[in-house]
Recover the amino acids of this structure.
């Protein structure tokens, strides 16, 4: 397990953009499972949407990518950050709202040097909410 202190040593993100609370499982070069606890205190809920708070889809994908970044760095890749190159096959199946705990499952599809391709899912209570494939580059 990787706690928030170690996550903050791995990723450059900070509040309000650090979107991973814990990593439950990590197999280098293969997969990682991370958690995000969604609370009403998230700054984006003020405007998305008042009276009907829904986590923005782009932030769900960003959180998924942060889990992938942790996986890449724990796989021995050196660099200072991770940048998206492409995001594909995204499907939003169910809204995520305050009180939900998101379980991100990210798998390495392939990698070449500092470029990685991942598949990922986001689930709440074992219900698939989001899925995507994305390519990212480790920056130096």
């Amino acid at each position: 397990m990787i706690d928030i202190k170690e996550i903050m040593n791995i990723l450059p993100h900070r509040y309000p953009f650090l979107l991973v609370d814990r990593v439950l499982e990590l197999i280098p070069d293969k997969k990682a499972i991370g958690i995000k606890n969604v609370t009403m205190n998230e700054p984006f809920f003020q405007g998305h949407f008042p009276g009907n708070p829904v986590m923005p889809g782009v932030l769900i994908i960003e959180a998924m990518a942060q889990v992938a970044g942790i996986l890449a760095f724990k796989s021995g890749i050196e660099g200072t950050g991770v940048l998206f190159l492409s995001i594909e096959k995204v499907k939003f199946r169910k809204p995520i709202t305050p009180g939900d705990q998101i379980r991100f499952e990210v798998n390495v599809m392939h990698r070449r040097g500092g470029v990685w391709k991942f598949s990922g899912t986001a689930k709440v209570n074992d219900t698939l909410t989001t899925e995507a494939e994305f390519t990212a580059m480790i920056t130096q």
About this structure: The radius of gyration is 14 Å. The helical segments are 4-10, 57-74.
